[in-house]
Design goal:
Layout: E1 6-8, E2 14-16, E3 26-30, E4 33-40, E5 43-50, E6 53-57, E7 74-78, E8 82-85, H1 91-98, H2 117-130, H3 141-149, E9 230-236, E10 260-263, E11 279-282, E12 291-292, E13 296-297
Parallel strand pairs: 9-12
Antiparallel strand pairs: 1-2, 3-4, 4-5, 5-8, 6-7, 8-13, 9-10, 10-11
């Protein structure tokens, strides 16, 4: 089967010899599965097809680095496949849509960061209005963890953590930029001083975000699901999973002041935060050089 024979329908599932989605400018299949891309102002962004399935959401009791807010591990069914950006939103895409760049660590292929909830909603509204049928949104927390795990049940999609130090877990070096390695190769002149970080994997150097896609992807072909930048999700924050939906939908309360979930850890995080089950939250107005997002095309 060649890439030319792999066509995608309007978003529900990949098809052979079907019709591509109206938003796609390129599509095909590789060792990770089906993909499709859209373009805006000569900036292209690839999305990966995430097939339906099940996951155990949360962490088991014996997982190294486990936090209390990952309790009530439960099975979630993702009944419908969905599209997920294969990287966090890059600064070049944000610039093409919004005509500005709020990021601290500026370069086109780094993740856009320093964006709050309302800024992201404005971005989504503008982007969806520019590309017919695109209908991007933030993923639910369950969809994010399902996509991150890509069929694995270990702490990361590369295996469990062997924590040698607060900022020293060798398995992360292959798949993530985190507090133990984010100074390696960092070339901008506004890097953060990390000299006070304890027990790092590599020596002290200024650090920050890195261009997307430099680390190994997971089995779905998604890069930077762990590390580089925290990623906003669509859910309101809950202290644990007691009462959480089991169908993959976003867990939203009738509370305009609620915090929102973030997942994945970042370039500045301790190693234990860079796990598939790790969760955090921030107020909707929070902005930081370690916080970005990626989008999904979520099916009804």
């Amino acid at each position: 089967m060649t890439d030319a024979n792999v066509i995608i329908d309007s978003g529900r599932r990949p098809l052979i010899n079907g019709v591509p989605p109206i938003w796609a400018t390129a599509w095909g299949k590789d060792e990770f599965g089906v993909y499709a891309s859209f373009s805006i102002n000569e900036v292209s962004q690839r999305l990966r097809w995430i097939p339906p399935g099940r996951l155990w959401m949360g962490s088991p009791k014996g997982e190294a680095g486990r936090n209390y807010n990952e309790r009530h591990r439960h099975e979630v069914t993702i009944a419908s496949g969905f599209w997920m950006m294969d990287t966090p939103v890059r600064q070049c895409l944000w610039q093409a849509v919004m005509d500005d760049n709020p990021s601290r660590f500026k370069s086109p292929d780094r993740p856009v960061e320093s964006v709050d909830w309302d800024m992201i909603q404005q971005f989504l509204s503008r982007l969806n209005s520019k590309v017919a049928g695109l209908e991007l949104a933030l993923p639910s927390e369950a969809q994010w963890e399902y996509a991150c795990r890509a069929g694995s049940e270990t702490a990361t999609y590369a295996g469990d953590l062997e924590i040698l130090g607060v900022h020293n877990v060798p398995v992360l070096d292959r798949i993530a930029w985190y507090g133990g390695n984010s100074g390696v190769g960092f070339e901008l002149d506004n890097g953060e001083d990390i000299s006070r970080r304890l027990k790092k994997q590599y020596p002290d150097t200024p650090s920050g975000t890195h261009p997307v896609g430099e680390k190994l992807p997971n089995a779905f072909g998604l890069h930077d699901m762990l590390g580089n930048v925290w990623e906003w999700c669509a859910d309101h924050w809950h202290d644990n999973y007691d009462g959480a939906p089991t169908n993959g939908s976003a867990w939203i309360e009738d509370d305009a002041a609620a915090d929102y979930v973030m997942r994945g850890g970042s370039w500045s995080c301790v190693a234990r935060a860079v796990r598939a089950a790790c969760r955090s939250c921030f107020t909707p107005s929070f902005r930081s050089g370690s916080v970005g997002f990626r989008c999904a095309r979520v099916q009804s």
